[in-house]
Amino acid sequence: MRMSSGGRGPVWAWFGHSWRRLAILIAALAACTALMILVGAPAPFLLGPLVGGGIFSLVVKADWGVPDAIRHGGVAVVGAGAGALIDPDAGVKLFESPLAIVGGVVVTIIFSLLTGLLLLLSPHISIATALLGSLAGAASGVSAMARDVEADEVVVAAIQYARVVVVIAAITLAAAVLGAEASGDASAPVAAGGSLLLDLGFTLVSAGGGLVLARLLPFTGAALLYATLLAVVAAWLLPIPVGIPVLILDAGYASIGLAVGFSFTVATVRTLRRVFPIALVQIVVCVAGSAGLGLLFAEVLGVSPLSGFLAMSPGGLPTVAAIAVQAGDDVALIIAMQLLRMFLAIITAVLIAVGINGYSRRARGGAVDGDAPPGGLGI
């Protein structure tokens, strides 16, 4: 059975594929994910399936796609996982210094988008691809949204995760120069509570509720945003820590990575080769400029240079969290700003998507009344 690259179709359609090809795919995914874990790559359960799915797509030349039901569910789970990280302590810190924190985060996001204009120097990159690729924060959610605004999701994902790697290298170097040591454990703040049953209920309410709301009140990126908001509200209202079970969260990452991986073709690889030099320039400008803004932020707020650097970092939340905890300096401020940046990046991506889709519809003569937004569930 052949599936379109868009991945539309029932979940059970996968079982119509050749069992031999499925076995090859599973082996490729397992090997690539294990390699990503071994080298300490950021988001290994997203990058592993992305690389494994891409290799499979290029070598086997199978026009496969992730079914929409799985892709939508994965995006909602990732959104809920992001919301679960925004705990009340971060909220308290936000209310203590709202102008400085919100202002710093907004400046970081705007600066990253401005550097994204450099990507337009390449004739192979559209405005949608440039904006989503350069947006600082929520790399997995932004990558998942790319297809629905007709951006090149392979290029978006490549730029997003290349920036994460550069950010991690810059943070590690800055920590050594400015007087802190990386803990060696660059795992993200754990998005899971203590009770499995409660965590499953939390997942059902936040991710499942986000999907339901996206069906009732659809717009591009709706499921991602609804799931994030529901997770924040639920996590703040419950008296004990809750989160997304690790296996479910990893499955969500894997579905997004695999969807992008299946989009790899010989043509997209050629495009990546052409755009990567300018993409690397954009990434370096973004990271270096954010570092400068971080030092300025430190002077204004009266915190250490390392704290300012970490707070204004355009990504790399796991490493930022690990080094902040190791340094023991302004941890609440740093984590609050990083989580707020992640949250505002999701909202910004949704606004970009809605704006681009609205412009595209007007350019095509307007949408017919009752048309559903791209992506079915608005993601």
Automatic annotation (TrEMBL):
The chain crosses the membrane at residues 21-39, 98-120, 158-178, 190-213, 219-239, 246-269, 275-298, 331-354. GO terms for cellular component: membrane. GO terms for biological process: regulation of gene expression. Keywords: Membrane, Transmembrane, Transmembrane helix. InterPro entries: AbrB_fam (IPR007820). This is Ammonia monooxygenase.
